[in-house]
Write a structure and sequence with these properties.
The structure holds 5 protein chains of 5 kinds.
Chain B: H1 3-7, H2 10-27, H3 29-32, H4 35-56, E1 66-74, E2 79-85, H5 87-106, H6 119-149, H7 153-162, H8 164-174, H9 179-207, H10 228-245, H11 254-261, H12 264-289, H13 291-318, H14 322-342, H15 346-377, H16 388-391, H17 393-406, H18 415-428, H19 430-455, E3 465-468, E4 471-474, H20 486-504, H21 507-527
Antiparallel strand pairs in B: 1-2, 3-4
Helix pairs in contact in B: 2-4, 2-6, 4-5, 4-6, 5-6, 5-12, 5-15, 5-20, 5-21, 6-7, 6-8, 6-12, 7-9, 8-9, 9-10, 9-11, 10-12, 10-13, 11-12, 11-14, 12-14, 12-15, 13-14, 13-19, 13-21, 14-15, 14-18, 14-19, 15-17, 15-18, 15-20, 15-21, 17-19, 17-20, 18-19
Chain C: H1 3-23, H2 27-52, H3 56-86
Helix pairs in contact in C: 1-2, 2-3
Chain D: H1 2-11, H2 23-55, H3 72-81, H4 92-108, E1 116-120, E2 127-130, H5 138-159, H6 163-194, H7 199-205, H8 211-214, H9 216-229, H10 241-244, H11 254-279, H12 287-293, H13 302-324, H14 330-361, H15 376-402, H16 456-469
Antiparallel strand pairs in D: 1-2
Helix pairs in contact in D: 2-11, 2-13, 3-11, 4-5, 4-11, 5-6, 6-9, 6-14, 9-11, 9-14, 11-13
Classes of the chains: A mainly alpha, B mainly alpha, C mainly alpha, D mainly alpha, E mainly alpha.
Subunit structure (chain A): NDH-1 is composed of 14 different subunits. Subunits NuoA, H, J, K, L, M, N constitute the membrane sector of the complex.
Protein name (chain A): NADH-quinone oxidoreductase subunit A
Subcellular location (chain A): Cell membrane; Membrane
């Protein structure tokens, strides 16, 4: 087989089958006894509030993490191909990548120093 | 003839000097208080300078441009700094140089304090305002001289447009109650006309080879001769701008407003000199650059000119505002000038040129004297005046004198040019002449009617109500108005002298102009 | 499968994205529309890269992803700050500036 | 695809050869992997409980089957038979999809993990690698699938429409993406030396030297990140029982819960497998054995054995750590990820790149220094040794600084915050008690003598124990 | 597979860009490490020196290029030729004065929110203001934007252009949201700018993809050579070119892609508005010129109609809408739309003089814009207690300003008449040159419309002059309502430079025009 992605599809199909099948099985097999309290949100036993805290919003801090993550994710995107063809890209690639790393480090340092990484 | 004068860069000096003085007055605080004397001395000096220059002018060769200076200015655009005057240019420069000191004298106390200024600052504020006024007038003088001296189309255009700015401020800052609207109207009309001209200026660049010196008027003749349509478009782009400037029907409407709202001094310069730029441009630019188109368009233009003459006269009769009346009379007069330019005979052209000078002087006298009256009476409405010849005798006399000059009484400045124009028109076509004569009649009507309304009749009693536009108005004391003061008389004297001179002995001026007229009339003649 | 199909798909995605930007009033949704458009362009690039038999298309797509990521960061920063102020990410609520 | 990737594939010398495989072979392999994973999870459940019990001086499950070995099977079956509750506030579709995503992504990683070298299937003469498939970009694929797996958690937490799951999901997301960075960066240095992203090639590149030794810091970073990645103690904040009930899974029950649970354990196996493949030589025999017994132990089905052993070595590590360490506080945890792991990984990457650069692109070849027979391996070991020493020294320095502080425990904050104030911290300043911020310290409590370290995991385990055994 | 060949990089030729971006990076580090006390001073000095140095570098490269001819840089991604360098120089000049305005602190505070992320009106924000926090990130952001802009005119492939587009846009999106006062307005402007900007860059990108698909390359020259080849994919080619042009037209604010302009100009901090209005336009037009002049010649027939319509619409809509505005910034915004239309004439002309004339126009426009917006920052409102508050932007608030502050009013008038294109100002020569190029290119109907639009446009410029000089001030002497604040001097310097520049460009434009005349040909 020349296309390495076909086995992946097979694997994916089987995994999906298993995942969905499991749910279906439990839906079929499991008992169904309705109880109002059962379908309420769990809040440590007290009467649940109508909306979850923050109405489904994420605290701001997580956005900062997400943004920082994106920066580094980009870095990784470029590092991987470079690492693999390290010898071919030779000194030019090495220097370019060091420059790139430096440029990624600068905002990182900035964020660090300005408290963007402090979680409080 | 003293040759050492001829070598000086006269025009440049005359152009630069007033601007420099203006800048000094405006920027250097101590000079502000003495702004008026300084301005007067400067303008007088310029007048003397013009006189000296004129003395060096080669009258026998009036058709040739003299005192020329040519330097590269914006080489990539082909624009040069080129100045020089021929007979007509010299005359108009002299007119400008004459009127500026007159206006300054006449308007010595014209600049008032604006309302809402605290008493302790009033002195400074007044000095500042006066300095501003004088500075603007001086800048305007520079530009007026420059525009008549420009021998480069681009330079001409630039000054043509730049002149708007000081006038705009003169009207807008120092004018009457409706000055803002008037200033805006003036600027927008002129700017629109100017921008249309800009398109033409650019197009001329591409119709010639487009190298350095492209815009020298000396190098520009018969643009796009092989493409009559294009030439007509180019001609129109210039003509429209000039028509706006020299208010011709139907683009004249800005003038009455501007003239009525501006101070008399500003109006004088505006109508007396600035508007002449329009007709000047028609002669020195429209005719030589686009002879074919000018000849083709001439009949239409003459019709417009006749409409201007008649319409201006009729409307002038109907005016109640003294300044507006004079402004509309100017529309009529400009109709004469334009007609003289385009009928295509040498006689008419000479007449038109002389008319420009003569009209400049008479209209100045009318505006200034009317200004003296309206400032005394605090109203421009003729209906609020009556019998003023008994109260202000000298004023009435001089007004009548100027008015008679305006209606072309023989022996006064208006007669010779009007006669020449009529003659030239008849030469071209009898119908032109007939209509023009109607204009002459009308001019007699509006001047004399105005005189009758304002200066004759009984002097109204103080406090007697006057029916004005349906509303009763308490008329201020008319019997107590003062006659012309010494300063005001001195302002009028030079004008009166020139009026007399032009009426009695126009030969020297005609000599200056006729050569030029020969040249331009030939162009139109050969083209048609 | 013909490569044209990919182009058609990317065209559809691009249209959906631009319609989302133009019609949806929620800033985040509009923003996602923009991202969809960028990805549609990426798909086009990769498809053409395949068509031309070179890797340029894919490389460009890389750069586009980076740019898109940077845009996400900036966009989120702006949207979040507005959201905190107004408690809403609707574009219509942001109408202090008359249009 | 072929035309484009041909050059890349052609360069791969050590890649596994799948040209014999047919679709049916792939299907068989895939099924085998699924079965392997399910069995491993069942085993892992037992394994974990037994080991932890050992640590805690208990027995652990010992009733069902030998050593309680089949205890996990009834546990799992029970979950299927439980009622499938969908909470009222849930966003139904996403609520349902989330666990499937989780388990799907968990299963998919093993698709590119080499279990062993080429083997002959017993009873046939069919030769095939013990690996479902291999991509030229397997490592990227693994990272991608891992990233996709986050969706399962975050969607599950969000769609429950409940507070605790949401908080757990948010935490989990932040945690996974934070630690994924350290992980990815650690992997780059391996790619650099191995020159490929294909798992089988990476394994082959470790014929002489496991990268765990040559690239020790990267390995360490990877391991730590792996703990964060799979939400295991000491980084199990998304489902910290004490704080968030059960995190994102709070509202899940029955099979849906089972999938999350399963996914979590498979993910442990996943990171173990990746660590094995990338750092520990994959299916290759430990090199002392090769030296002792010759090449034979490195071939055929032996590889499978080594692979399993190595995985379970890591699994043991997970359990060991769980039994030993306490949960981090969230800020400490994030700070550790961002301010320690990522910088270390970056610096290490820079060093490796520089070293490789000098080696490849200049005439100066550090590996060729032949003083007393120093080889590449020796030099790398040397560097690793130096780094270890540096690490130790760095570890010592803050200790020395903290000595002047009378209360030694106060300086434990890993945030390194410099906001120390001279004022004593008053926990009740705001009217209600608040915990100290980093750098602040609690005044000695009157009840201090009575406070002991709570053995949270131990308590959990015992309750768990009683329930399942009963 | 081809062996990888490292591109030759001529670092010297890249020096202007490198200097600016390097300073930007250093600026970020300054934010991280330099103590707050001296941070602002450090940033200002760095930025000003950086832009100055870049200007010097550009001048040096100009000399080199004049001597050695244009070159391709970085494996052809950039071009170092006369138009690029001239555009960069113009850009840097405008950026320099813009930067001075940005750095200025009139009445003791700069124009930026001290804590941009704080909720407007919150206690935290008030506290930050009281504590005298200053926003210094604006300097690195500005430098990054300038860096992107510098690449813009030189970019010779679509990908570089796209990335430069983003590098210049992203900082501007942020800068637009940093206004110290009217925070909500500012944030909203930022959001709108961002959404529409991202939207347009998506179009640009799709255009890039299509052109790549058509020609197999994103190089301008490759696309240009592929143009004549009729391969049945002409539609794709045309769509690609149009989409790319749409992306660029958005940046210059041409109708119908102008809707962001008034909102963003109004909401953004005024110094940023000035910087953005001038420099973005310069960069975007320079790029548009290169793209159009290199790629379009083969497509002229197809593109002309579209561009003509856009140019006409831009001039008319900009002018007409500017007339009805009562807010200074919005008025200037619409006027900038109209100006974009005028500049488009030079682009459409597709004659060599079009390049130089557009660049000249942009210089004149840029100087006047930065100067005008710089002055806007100084005219402030005053509340009942006599405290100076935000900028007085309503037209009526400018009434009678000429009386009290003649110098300021005269400078503003100068900029306005330059906008209006009245002679003896740079605006006039610029208009002249551009209209000239358009006529040379045969677009005389456009010129006629442009002339009419200019005339109409004069109305709203003149109206402001009327207000300043001819109208009585609304307030009393004791409480003028509108006041002019003292600056630190930087804005004054910037305004004077702009004013002098405007006059010089109007009176003796010869040398600059000569310089521009060298920049009439793009290196393919």
């Amino acid at each position: 087989m020349t296309n390495p992605y076909i086995p992946l599809l097979i694997m994916g199909g089987l995994a999906l089958l298993l995942g969905v099948g499991g749910l279906a099985a439990s839906a079929v097999i499991g008992p169904k006894r309705y109880n109002k309290v059962k379908v309420d949100a769990y809040e440590c036993g007290i009467q649940p509030s109508p909306h979850s805290v923050g109405a489904g919003r994420f605290p701001i801090k997580y956005y900062i993490v997400a943004m920082t993550f994106i920066v580094f994710d980009i870095e990784v995107v470029f590092l991987y191909p470079w690492a693999v063809s390290f010898t071919e890209l030779a000194g030019f690639g090495l220097i370019a990548m060091f420059g790139f790393l430096f440029l990624i480090t600068v905002p990182f340092v900035y964020e660090w120093r300005r408290g963007g990484l402090d979680w409080d | 003839m003293p040759t050492q004068f001829a070598d000086l860069p006269w025009l440049t000096i005359l152009i630069v000097a007033p601007t420099v003085v203006a800048a000094l007055i405006w920027l250097v605080k101590p000079l502000r208080r003495a702004a008026r004397p300084i301005g007067l001395v400067t303008s007088a000096a310029v007048l003397i300078g013009v006189a000296l220059m004129a003395s060096a002018f080669e009258v026998s060769d009036a058709a040739t441009v003299q005192f020329t200076q040519t330097h590269d200015w914006i080489a990539p655009l082909g624009a040069s700094y080129a100045v020089g005057v021929d007979g007509m240019g010299l005359t108009l420069v002299a007119l400008a140089a004459l009127l500026v000191p007159v206006v300054l004298i006449a308007g010595w106390n014209e600049v008032r304090l604006p309302s809402g200024i605290a008493a302790d600052r009033a002195d400074n504020a007044l000095a500042y305002r006066q300095a501003g006024f004088v500075a603007l007038i001086l800048v305007l003088e520079s530009l007026m001289i420059a525009v008549f001296a420009a021998r480069d189309l681009f330079l001409f255009y630039v000054i043509f447009e730049a002149m708007l700015i000081p006038v705009y401020f003169l009207i807008g800052v120092y004018g009457g109650p409706n000055r803002r609207a008037a200033a805006l109207k003036f600027l927008l009309y002129s700017l629109a006309g100017g921008l249309v001209m800009l398109a033409g200026v650019i197009a001329v660049y591409f119709q010639t080879d487009g190298g350095p010196g492209t815009y020298l008027l000396a190098n520009l003749t018969d643009i796009a001769a092989d493409n009559p349509t294009l030439q007509m478009w180019l001609f129109l782009s210039f003509f429209i701008a000039f028509a706006v400037k020299a208010p011709m029907f139907p683009v004249h409407t800005w003038l009455p407003d501007a003239a009525a709202q501006a101070t008399p001094g500003t109006s004088t310069l505006l109508v007396g000199v600035l508007d002449k730029v329009g007709t000047f441009g028609m002669i020195v630019i429209c005719l030589p650059l686009f002879p074919g188109a000018a000849a083709a368009a001439a009949p239409v233009i003459i019709v417009l000119a006749i409409i201007s003459i008649v319409y201006g006269g009729l409307v002038a009769i109907g005016q109640n505002d003294l300044m507006r009346m004079i402004a509309f009379s100017s529309v009529s007069h400009f109709g004469f000038i334009v007609m003289g330019v385009f009928v295509g005979t040498q006689t008419a052209l000479v007449g038109a040129m002389l008319y420009m000078v003569a009209h400049g002087v008479t209209i100045a006298a009318l505006f200034l004297i009317s200004g003296f009256l309206t400032q005394r009476g605090a109203s421009q409405d003729m209906r609020t005046y009556s019998g003023m010849q008994r109260v202000t005798r000298v004023l009435a006399g001089t007004w009548l004198f100027a008015g008679l000059a305006s209606l072309a009484l023989p022996g006064l400045s208006g007669f010779v040019p009007e006669y020449l124009v009529l003659l030239g028109s008849f030469e071209a076509h009898w119908a032109y002449g007939v209509f023009a004569v109607i204009g002459v009649v009308l001019s007699a009507l509006y001047i004399l009617l105005a005189y009758q309304r304002v200066f004759t009749g009984p002097v109204p009693e103080a406090g007697a109500p006057v029916e004005l536009a349906g509303a009763a108005l308490d008329v201020p004391d008319r019997a107590g108005l003062k006659d012309l003061t010494g300063r005001e008389r001195w302002a009028v004297v030079p004008l009166a002298l020139v009026i007399l001179f032009l009426g009695l002995y126009p030969a020297p001026v005609l000599e200056l102009l006729s050569g030029v007229a020969d040249q331009f009339a030939a162009i139109l003649g050969s083209a048609s | 499968m013909s490569l044209v199909n990919y182009l058609v798909l990317s065209g559809i995605l691009f249209s959906i994205g631009s319609i989302a930007v133009l019609t949806r009033r929620n800033a985040i949704v509009a923003f996602m529309g923009v991202e969809l458009m960028l990805n549609a362009a990426n798909l086009t690039l990769v498809t053409f890269g395949r068509l031309h038999g070179d890797l340029h298309g894919q490389v460009i797509a890389f750069f586009v992803m980076v740019v898109a990521a940077a845009e996400v960061v900036i966009g989120l920063a702006i949207i979040v700050s507005i959201f905190r102020t107004r408690g809403s990410a609707s574009i219509d609520d942001a109408n202090l500036l008359k249009s | 695809m072929n035309t484009n990737l041909a050059p890349i594939l052609a360069r791969s010398t050590g890649a596994a050869d799948f040209s014999n495989d047919t679709i049916w072979v792939s299907v068989i392999k895939a099924v085998a992997i699924l079965v392997f994973l399910l069995l491993s999870v069942l085993f892992a459940l037992w394994f974990e409980r037994r080991i932890i019990a050992r640590f805690q001086q208990r027995l652990g499950p010992n009733v069902r089957g030998p050593f309680g070995l089949v205890q996990s099977i009834p546990d799992a079956l029970k979950l299927i038979l439980k009622e499938d509750i969908t909470v009222k506030a849930a966003d139904k579709v996403i609520y349902l999809i989330a666990p499937v995503i989780s388990v799907f992504c968990a299963f998919m990683i093993y698709a590119v993990i080499p279990f062993g070298p080429e083997v002959t299937i017993p009873f046939t003469d069919f030769v095939t690698p013990l690996q479902l498939t291999d991509l030229p970009v397997s490592i990227l694929y693994i990272l991608g699938i891992t990233g996709l797996g986050v969706y399962g958690i975050v969607l599950g937490g969000w769609s429950s429409g409940s507070t605790y799951p949401l908080l757990g999901a948010v935490r989990s997301t932040a945690q996974i993406i934070s630690y994924e960075l350290g992980m990815s960066l650690a992997l780059v240095s391996v790619l650099l030396v191995a020159g490929s992203m294909s798992t089988s090639e990476i394994v082959n590149s470790q014929e002489n030297l496991w990268w765990a030794f040559a690239l020790l810091p990267a390995f360490v970073v990877y391991l730590i990140s792996a703990f964060g990645e799979v939400n295991r103690l000491p980084f199990d904040l998304p489902e910290a029982e004490g704080e968030l009930v059960a995190g994102y899974q709070t509202e899940y029950s029955s099979m849906k819960f089972a999938w999350f649970y399963l996914a979590e354990y498979i993910n442990m196996l996943n990171v173990a497998a990746v660590a094995t493949t990338v750092f520990m030589g994959g299916w290759r025999a430990p090199w002392p054995l090769v030296t002792l017994f010759g090449e034979g132990v490195d071939q055929g089905w032996w590889g499978f054995l080594w692979f399993i052993l190595k995985i379970w070595l890591f699994m043991f590590l997970f359990v060991w750590v769980r039994a030993t360490l306490l949960r981090f506080r969230y800020d400490q945890f994030m700070a550790f990820g961002w301010k320690v792991l990522i910088p270390v990984a970056l610096v290490w990457l820079g060093l490796v790149a520089a070293f490789q650069g000098v080696r490849h692109f200049t005439s100066f070849d550090p590996t060729a220094i032949d003083v007393g027979g120093l080889s590449l391996r020796t030099v790398l070991f040397g560097i690793a040794g130096i780094l270890i020493i540096v690490t130790i020294v760095m570890y010592l320095i803050p200790d020395r600084e903290s000595k002047p502080v009378p209360d030694g425990k106060a300086a434990k904050g890993t945030t390194g915050s410099d906001a120390t104030t001279d004022e004593p911290f008053d926990a009740f300043a705001g009217g209600f008690p608040v915990p100290p911020l980093p750098g602040q310290k609690l005044p000695p409590s009157k009840r201090r003598a009575r406070v002991t370290t709570p053995a949270a995991p131990a308590e959990d385990e015992t309750t768990d124990e009683e329930k399942t055994d009963g | 597979m081809n062996q990888f060949v490292p591109p030759e990089i001529d670092w010297a030729a890249l020096s202007p860009v490198l200097i600016v971006l390097g300073i930007a990076v250093i600026g970020v580090l300054v934010e991280a490490f330099v103590p707050v006390r001296v941070r602002r001073a450090t940033q200002v000095v760095l930025a000003v020196v950086g832009v100055g140095a870049a200007l010097v570098a550009v001048a040096w490269r100009w000399v080199v290029v004049q001597a050695d001819g244009p070159t391709a840089l970085v494996a052809g991604a950039l071009r170092e030729d006369a138009p690029a360098l001239l555009a960069q120089a113009i850009l840097l000049v405008c950026a320099f004065v813009g930067l001075l305005v940005i750095a200025d602190r009139s009445s003791g505070e700069d124009a930026f929110a001290p804590a941009a992320a704080a909720i407007p009106g919150s206690a935290y924000e008030a506290e930050a203001r009281r504590a005298g926090l200053v926003q210094t990130e604006v300097f690195p952001l500005t430098m990054f934007a300038i860096g992107g802009m510098l690449v813009f005119p030189a970019a010779a492939d679509l990908l570089t252009l796209f990335i430069a587009l983003e590098v210049l846009s992203l900082p501007l999106y942020l800068l637009a949201g940093l206004a110290r006062r009217r925070r909500l307005l500012s944030q909203e402007a930022s959001l709108k700018y961002f959404l529409l900007g991202a939207f347009s860059s998506a179009f640009f990108l799709m255009g890039l993809a299509l052109l790549y698909g058509y020609s197999g390359s994103v190089r301008f020259d490759a696309v240009a050579t592929a143009v004549p080849a009729t391969s049945g994919m002409d539609g794709m080619l045309l769509a690609g070119v149009l989409l790319v042009i749409v992306g660029l037209l958005f940046k210059v604010g041409a109708v119908p892609f102008h809707s962001w302009v008034p909102d963003v100009y109004q909401g953004a901090p005024t110094p940023v508005t000035g910087f953005m209005a001038a420099c973005t336009k310069i960069a975007a037009f320079a790029a548009l010129l290169r793209f159009f002049y290199v790629v379009a010649p083969g497509l002229q027939w197809d593109l002309t109609v579209v561009l003509w319509i856009i140019a006409i619409l831009t001039m008319i809509v900009g002018t007409v809408l500017a007339v009805v505005q009562t807010d200074m910034k919005r008025m200037l915004a619409y006027s900038s739309v109209a100006h974009a239309g005028f500049v488009l004439l030079g682009v459409i002309a597709l004659v060599p003089s079009g390049i130089s004339s557009v660049l000249f126009y942009l210089l004149a426009y840029g100087l006047a814009t930065v100067g005008a917006f710089g002055l806007l920052t100084l005219v402030r409102e005053r509340d009942a207690d006599g405290n100076v508050t935000g900028e007085a932007l309503h037209l009526s608030q400018w009434a009678g300003l000429g009386r009290r502050h003649p110098v300021l009013a005269v400078c503003f008038t100068l900029f306005l008449i330059s906008f209006a294109g009245i002679p003896l100002t740079g605006g006039f020569i610029g208009k002249f040159a551009v209209f000239g190029a358009a006529i040379e290119g045969g677009a005389w109907p456009l010129v006629v419309i442009a002339v009419l639009a200019s005339a109409a446009a004069a109305f709203f410029y003149v109206r402001v002059i009327v207000l300043m000089f001819f109208t009585e001030p609304t307030g009393t002497d004791a409480d003028p309502g509108t006041t002019v604040v003292r600056t630190e001097g930087l804005t004054a310097v910037a305004v004077v430079v702009c004013a002098v520049g405007t006059v010089i460009l109007g009176v003796v434009p010869g040398p600059i025009l000569d310089l521009a005349a060298n920049a009439t040909k793009f290196m393919l």
